[in-house]
Amino acid sequence: MKKLITSALLASTLTLSGCGYNNLQALDEDTSAKWSEVVNQYQRRADLVPNLVAVVERYAEHEKEVLTEVAQARSRVGSIQLTPETLNDPNAMKAYTDAQAGMTSALSRLMMVTENYPQLKADGMFQDLQAQLEGTENRITVARNNYIQSVQGYNTTVRKFPTNLTAKVFGMQTKANFSVENERAISTAPTVNFGSHANTGSKSATTP
Question: How far apart are CA 63 and CA 204, in angstroms?
Fold first, then answer.
């Protein structure tokens, strides 16, 4: 009896492996892990925002519009969370990526404003936050690209024969990915390296 059970389990394992079930599960886990890293890096960026706004406000307190825009963008980002279940929903993915694109845009505008404040750019804390933001934006780009590739591999396996039959049996569907439009919108990190673009003679704020 024990041999019969063992043989049945072995046959079942071989069947699942042959139909691509194990591969689908592995790919699904990979996309979840890659997405977690995307979320982790976006959260890292969001965590930098309060300190960044605080130090900018010390030198550019009249830039209320820009500072408010950044705070509101951070709030929108925090209000949208994607779970592994909602990752299959294109509308949920679009809402999330649109919110992150808004955060990118707000940070870009904030950095443009700081061009008018040489003392701010010389502040040690600001320089540290600038470096952290730049590094985080680079990590976001890497994490996002890794996720795009992972989803592409998963979706291809879900749709091609014969693994599409297995996917259908187990209710495994294609996952929503970054679209060309929103991928382009968030693929360029905010400019945080000021270099020679500083307007060192200006001491008054000019909102772009």
Answer: 10
Residue 188, burial from CB neighbour count under 10 angstroms (0-12, 13-18, 19+): exposed
Q: Tell me the two tokens of residue 161.
A: 């024969």
**Which domains does the chain show, CATH number per domain?**
23-174 (1.20.1440.20)
Region of residue 199 (left: phi > 0; alpha: psi -120 to 50; beta: else) = beta
Q: Averaged over 51-56, what is the pLDDT?
A: 94
User: Residue 191 is inside which H or E element, if any?
Assistant: none
pLDDT in tens, 57-113: 999 988 999 999 999 999 999 999 887 777 888 889 889 999 999 999 999 999 999
Contacts of 176 (CB under 8 A, 6+ apart): 87, 88, 89, 90, 92, 93
* Rounded distance between C-alpha atoms, residue 67 and residue 70, angstroms: 5
- Tell me the pLDDT band of 149, cut-offs 50, 70 and 90: very high
Average pLDDT of span 37-50: 95
Contact 182, 97 (CB under 8 A): yes
- CB atoms near residue 182 (< 10 Å): 17
Rounded CA-CA distance 145/29 in Å is 17
Q: Which two tokens stand for residue 5?
A: 């059970």
d(CA 101, CA 98): 5
